[in-house]
Amino acid sequence: MQGKIIKGIAGFYYVHDGRSRIYECKAKGIFRNKKIKPLVGDDVEFDVLDETAGEGSIVSIFPRKNELIRPAVANIDQAMLVFAVKAPAPNFNLLDRFLIAMEQQDIPVVLCFNKTDLGDEEDARVYRSVYRNTGYSIHFLSVKQAEGVDAVRTLLRGKTTALAGPSGVGKSSLMNFLNPDAGMETGAVSEKIQRGRHTTRHTELFYLEENTYLLDTPGFTSMNVEGIECGELKQFFPEFLSPAEDCRFPDCVHVGERDCGVKRAVEDGKISRERYENYLQIYQDLKDRKKW
Predict the structure, then answer these.
(1) pLDDT tens for residues 182-208?
(2) Which of 48, 55, 86, 212 is 20 to 30 A distant from 221 in Cα terms?
(3) 230-291 falls under which CATH superfamily?
(4) Per DSSP, which regions of the chain are E strands?
(5) What letter does residue 196 receive in the DSSP assignment?
């Protein structure tokens, strides 16, 4: 039979058959010998060992179209990044680091700002202005008031989506709204540090409908940019590409150069200054890391 791994705990892999059944499976020793670790999201072939007990054995893993390290998951069609409008306020530097990680994997991203019931139209205007000309799809919703959630459901249909974002922004509440059977634990935001308590402790795919899976991941409060040099960073900011054609030097990194199309676009308001300042900070982080 064929299925998709939706959860892995303590050497057991839970495989959804694409319809209504989940099988608890072990992976054959050949994977361990080849140093291949099955991942959540893997499409697999498995043998049923006990139909009544729902037990099986994974015999092969189909080729992966992508693979993420954090979270450890494979075959993601898109990422839905959830931040809150307020409580906690969005950390755009953290958001941009996540976007870079997704750009590295060529994984499309949908940006969602939850808790619109706590904000106003000015908040939405500001957040949209930060990501103007980036090409990312931006949506606003309130899970608490069930506003904008149907549009999110449409975005998910027919895809395997990674749901990610900091703790306390309402990811688990969104999951519970979309799939009441998920029964995800939710946590309040700490009054002292304005961060949510981590409520998701492992990576798990939830089946929503035919060919539609949603991956809930542990909330994160930091993220390092890995696997790229500082001079390569510019290619992971989509809104830089067109203005960069006006740079005097083809290898311009848009930092200290004087005749720079990207810097002019920032001054002209075509590129968000907040995004550009985040770029400078991440660029410096990568440059400093290389020294060590």
Answers:
(1) 654 433 333 433 333 434 456 789 999
(2) 212
(3) Probable gtpase engc; domain 3 (1.10.40.50)
(4) 2-9, 12-16, 22-27, 43-50, 55-61, 67-68, 73-74, 78-84, 109-114, 137-140, 160-164, 204-209, 212-216
(5) B
- Max CA pair span of the chain: 71
Q: HSE on the CB side for 45, CA within 13 Å?
A: 5
Fold observed for domain 68-216:
Rossmann fold (3.40.50)
Here the tokens at position 164 are 């990610």
- Token pair of 208 as six digits: 């929503």
In this prediction the pTM is: 0.83
Query: Which two tokens mark 204?
Result: 């798990």
* CA–CA gap between residue 1 and residue 17 (Å, rounded): 8
Per-residue model confidence as pLDDT tens digits over 242-291: 999 999 999 999 999 999 999 999 999 999 999 999 999 999 999 998 66
Strand partners, 111: 81, 138
Non-local CB neighbours of 270 within 8 Å, separated by 6+ positions: 133, 239, 243
* Sole residue written with tokens 């390290």: 69
Portions of the chain given CATH number 3.40.50.300: 68-216
Please give the radius of gyration of the chain, using alpha carbons only, rounded to the nearest integer. 21
Q: Tell me the HSE value of 207 on the side-chain side, using a 13 A CA sphere.
A: 17
Beta strands in 126-193 (DSSP E): 137-140, 160-164
Tell me the β-bridge partners of 46: 58
By the 8 A CB rule, do 156 and 80 touch? yes
Q: Is there a contact between 172 and 184 (Cβ–Cβ < 8 Å)?
A: yes
